[in-house]
Design brief:
The chain is of the alpha/beta class. The protein has 3 domains: about 70 residues, no CATH class; about 60 residues, no CATH class; about 170 residues, Rossmann fold (3-Layer(aba) Sandwich), CATH 3.40.50. It is built from 10 helices and 10 strands. It is elongated.
């Protein structure tokens, strides 16, 4: 392994250690959420100190001598107050999920359904000296030819012609990785009635980001759907899910009916691993609607889901009664509930949702 590769690997280990150390802060405050792009996020790590030039201890003349004391930074006076210089490091969602799993000691999910098989996937991440012409790496080949001609004295700077030989050729090569073939569908349901404010939605947003990261690391194909409800339910896109204005009363059964219709239409349980995550402040329209919700869960949603998770977000207006009703009715591993008092409780709720590996 080249020295630069060793340095890169060491730096990546440092970055992972810093993320693991500050995981609760990242989960609670969501610094990285807005930086997401594709399968990579930019993680701000102000704790990493970058190298800097300092005066040496040699005396008398030479470069780097003059006014100042040993240890002073080279350059202009930074002033009395030194500014912070956070370092943003790109981390893949796969690495982020791995860090989350290690920190929370999460078991790997055991998929169910007919598609529970593993297949080989090929990722072109290495270079070899042999291979088909279609995979020849032009830049690496040219570089090897240039080095050979310079060493042998054949390179002419006035006539910089570089002609690769067979021994100069380099080819892209793949690594074989085993990945699960099974598919998963995530259904998020959120109460957007008048009692769910901006702070409650931010908590849900942070939780959903990390839930997505973990579940997508466990499945080859993941579909995500979003349902909002007050007195009635409707499906929306991801942006609308987190930014709709609050209004109206709460009728949770409307969300359960819509979720059940989506599962029946698009995600048959014998082919898909279905995960339902519901977030509310615990208020519901009436005791009659709560009874309907319990029946829909027992007869429809729980049998069709790998797991149904309910997170109750604390608000100034929510009664919190719905979680009590769920806990009293169900004693099943298929239904998990947790209370999210504030942002600092998000990590504990994630552990409760995911620790069973279902």
């Amino acid at each position: 392994m080249r020295r630069v590769d060793q340095d890169v690997n060491r730096f990546r280990r440092i970055v992972k250690g810093q993320i693991r150390k500050n995981l609760r802060k990242f989960v609670s405050h969501g610094e990285m959420l807005t930086r997401k792009g594709g399968k990579v996020v930019a993680v701000p790590l102000p704790e990493i100190t970058l190298p800097r030039f300092t005066f040496g201890d040699r005396g008398g003349g030479g470069v780097g001598q003059g006014e100042g004391q040993p240890g002073d930074e080279v350059g202009q006076d930074p002033g009395e107050d030194e500014g912070e210089h956070p370092l943003e490091v790109d981390v893949s969602m796969e690495e982020l999920a791995q860090i989350l799993g290690e920190a929370l000691e999460l078991p790997h999910i055991e998929p169910r359904g007919q598609q529970n098989v593993e297949t080989d996937t090929h990722r072109y991440r290495s270079i070899r000296r042999t291979g088909p012409r279609s995979l020849r790496h032009f830049k690496r080949t040219y570089k090897r030819a240039l080095i050979r001609q310079i060493i042998s004295g054949d390179y002419d700077a006035d006539d910089p012609l570089v002609t690769p030989r067979r021994e100069d050729e380099r080819f892209r090569s793949f690594d074989i990785t085993r990945v699960p073939e099974s598919s998963a569908a995530i259904l998020y349901m959120m109460d957007v009635s008048g009692s769910m404010g901006a702070e409650q939605k931010e908590i849900v947003r942070n939780a959903a980001f990390w839930l997505d990261a973990w579940i997508q690391s466990q499945y080859r194909n993941v579909a995500t759907r979003y349902i909002v409800h007050d007195a009635s339910a409707r499906e929306v896109d991801r942006h609308s899910f987190f930014h709709l204005k609050e209004s109206g009363g709460t009728k949770i059964s409307s969300a359960y009916r819509l979720a059940n219709d989506i599962i029946d239409k698009d995600y048959p349980p014998d082919q898909w691993n279905v995960y339902c995550f519901q977030f509310s402040d615990g208020d519901n329209w009436s005791g009659g609607d709560t009874a309907l919700c319990l029946r829909l869960l027992e007869e429809e949603l729980l049998p069709k889901s790998n797991q149904f998770a309910y997170g109750q977000v604390k608000s100034a207006y929510g009664s919190g009664q719905f979680k009590h009703d769920l806990d009293q009715k169900f004693d099943s591993e298929d239904l998990v509930t947790c209370e999210i008092q504030d942002r600092d409780a998000i990590l504990d709720c994630l552990r409760e949702f995911l620790r069973r590996g279902r």
